[in-house]
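Hi F.,

I've been meaning to write this up properly since the lab meeting, where we talked about keeping a consistent format for the predictions we share between groups. The idea is simple: the sequence comes first, exactly as it goes in, then the structure tokens exactly as they come out, then a line or two of notes. No screenshots and no reformatting. I'm using this chain as the first example so we have something concrete to point to.
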Amino acid sequence: MKIKEIVEVIEPKDIFTGDVNAPITLTQFGDYESEACADTVETVAKILDVFAGTVRFSFRHFPLLKIHQKAHKAAEAAIGAGQEGKFWEMHVELFQNRRNLGVISLKSHAREAGVINKKFLDELINGTYGVYVQDDLREGIKLGVKTVPAFFINGQKFEQEPTYKNLSAHIQGIIDKKKAKVKAEA
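Output, unedited:
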């Protein structure tokens, strides 16, 4: 009898960019075919740059399947790339190629992102990471996400338009409140 090896999967909820110990977590629920989500990539990069050490970022998958049929497989591809520590490279690659997300294209995007797993295409075809995309979808629905991009700051839904100006002002407000609290306690 052959015993199947159990492989630990790195889930999207455990993948961050920015300082792991940052006091502020910016979470986005998004879809790789969404123009509006693609428009936030540079905004998030600027937030991470300006608030380096203070903000960490997590991208969670919320494919809008009724309008974006390829977004679910793209999310699976990102999770697959994440198993090799290439989630963020794949994340950028997918947004840059959001109009070309067929399964064969996903394999070449993965190669561009530096993925070397020989079973990548098989895992994609077999839906190996589909359950983790569904987990993100379920969590998003539970948190009230209806469309993308949806942002949360330290678990609280960000209700304004996700522009750099709005997000950075909100984050700066949190930082200022924490500083004031520390001063008051001193």
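Notes:
The two ends are 65 Å apart (CA to CA).
The beta strands are 17-18, 24-30, 55-61, 150-153, 156-157.

If this format works for you, I'll send the rest the same way.

G.
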